[in-house]
Amino acid sequence: MLLFLCSAASIASAQSALSVLENRLCKTWKIERIEQGGKITTADKSLNDFVMIINADHTVRQGMYPDAMITGKWSFDETSMMFVIKDDTTEQEYHMKVNSVTTDELILQDTSSISAVFIHYHAK
Q: How many CB atoms lie within 10 A of CB 95?
């Protein structure tokens, strides 16, 4: 019986392990610039403190650090490259396509906007 429980526990932990892409997402990101319709807006003082902290336990905190942070849960579908954040307070979902993720850069596309909006982050 003990062997069965140990096997079940190791299977469960293996199933919940993060993929390589999910591991790359899990860090603190700062906005670098936003591109919309060919116009580039760099992070000025109003966006300089905006961070998105993605944790391996599928929780996320985002907002103006440190005073205006909201919490939520995140999910990621590698097939469609869709990254979804669900706000804990409002239960609103934000759907973004991951265009690129490396160890130090993340580019998300806001799929709710009519014109393409690309948000460029760098690792903090």
A: 14
Q: Where are the domains of the chain?
A: 18-123
Its pTM stands at: 0.81
Query: What one-character-per-residue DSSP string does the chain give?
Result: -HHHHHHHHHHHHHHTPPPHHHHHH-SEEEEEEEEETTEEEE--TTTTTEEEEE-TTSEEEEEETTTEEEEEEEEEETTTTEEEEEETTT--EEEEEEEEE-SSEEEEEETTSSS-EEEEEEE-
CA 39 to chain centre: 24
Q: What is the pLDDT along the chain (124 residues), one digit of tens a residue?
A: 333 333 333 333 334 688 999 999 999 999 999 999 889 988 776 677 889 999 999 999 999 887 889 999 999 999 999 999 999 999 999 999 999 999 999 999 998 888 899 999 999 8
State whether CATH 2.30.30.100 applies to domain 18-123.
Answer: no
